[in-house]
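Protein chain data
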Amino acid sequence: METQVSVTILMPVYNGALYLKEAIDSILNQSYTDFELLIINDGSTDQTQKIIDGYTDHRIKCIRQSNMGVSRSLNKGLSLIDTPFIRRHDADDISEPDMLEKQMAFLKQHSDIHFVSTQCAFMSNRSKVAMKYRQPKTNLFQNKEYILATRDQFNPFSPIVHGTVLGYTSVFKEFNGYRTEFLTSEDNDLWLRIIEKYNFAILNQCPYYLRLNQGSATQMHKASLAYYRHLCINYADERKQFGSDPIMRGETVPPPPKEKTNQTTIANKIKGRSYRNDLLDYHYKIMLNAKDWPNVYNTLKIAIADGWKLSLTWKGILFPIIGKHFVQAGVKAKNLFK
């Protein structure tokens, strides 16, 4: 790609027509304008390409290819980029208008830091943002402007949000990009390799909204997500101890174990005794905080239908509404009468 701009924003997309326009618009509206947007259309069969073709902004470049998956699409994009900096962005998320400007200013002010990311707040499929629910959590920063990423912060979840990362192109390429042996957590594996040599800052700011989308790669590969997350951490520990990991030694990466069908859970659903922790432990709380009432209603309908006989279900519904302080007060009062 022939270019004279400073930053390439790299966005792979596969059948992302539903939210793609919001993502592109948030990029084109950035206050920092010295960038190009490279979209890798990874074999989409929906209206994705039509949406891309509807833009006339000269900063948008698009590559169409047969479906290769996220890691290979990202590596294809990296091979085409020759700008000094690369910023990642997912095709269903949204950046605040001053996000790129602040990140670029930070890197220019800190010559010893090669990568910078930020917090994200979670967003519903209806673009309602739950500012209370962030990744990484605010207490990780201890009131500091930024922190440097370390290996210990990756357990159990990565402190680095993939779609918020801005870094030097030369470093991306030095590490040969993403290792395709990882079906998921390919980004965590890359960040863990990078921080062994370079400083990676995480800003105590939240200008990025990550959509909870059932069609995302993370949601589609939920079964293997924990497996690969732990694997990349184990490989980081091996590099520290032995100087290399199995992939570097040419060994085969074992596949994730197959999920077992839990017939008891299926039977309990019929009896109304299945607690929907997949909905009530996080999803429901995010929808409440985002004030996304249609999603709140749909979540409650499913959770009650599956677990209406369980007191745990009703606690999961009511406690986020009344607040933890009232819950704690109630527990203390209950203990007084024991």
Summary: Residues 216-220 have pLDDT under 50 and may be disordered. The CA atoms of residues 276 and 303 lie 6 Å apart. Residues 222-242 form the longest helix (21 residues).
